[in-house]
Fold this sequence. Notes:
Elements: H1 3-6, H2 12-15, H3 19-38, E1 59-64, E2 76-80, E3 83-88, E4 93-98, E5 101-107, E6 118-122, E7 127-134, E8 141-142, E9 147-148, E10 153-158, H4 160-172
Parallel strand pairs: 1-7
Antiparallel strand pairs: 1-4, 2-3, 2-5, 5-6, 7-10, 8-9
Amino acid sequence: MSMSKLNWKRTPMARDPGAQPRRWLWWVSGVLLIAAGCAEPRATAQVPAAAPPVPAGQARIWFYRPYEPSESLNLANINVNDSYFGSVENGSAFYRDVPPGSYHIAPVSFVHDPGQDTNIQLAPGQQVYVKIVSLRSWGGNDTASRIIARDAFWAWLIPPQVAQVEIARGRSGI
């Protein structure tokens, strides 16, 4: 027997000529899936690109949540003056036109913190922006056998110039 026949070993490519291209395809598919998972989804805008003017004799309350994939992806339910007012999802915004007056804004939260709620006084034609912020670890319980994270939301009054930029950023998917 010749020496070349003794040292000859079968490679995966020799067994299956199509194995190498398939491995490459799996690798590329995996990289694409990882990249897609890291990409920030486009927020579905619940408001038109340019909101209509505030109706005469009314005021407007905006609610928004910047997209934070590491925080709660559940809807944040919002109570205004002790009644359900609406829900905002992670990365979206909505507004409601309301009569001028006093409003107590309280996001529904597993944890209660006196600083979670916001009180506002609205004049006719005024627009206010309320940012709904979540912090899942606030209501968490870490034990040796399980980790439980609960939704905790806060309502923060944000200056219009800052809020408009954050809302636009969320709708553009940046």
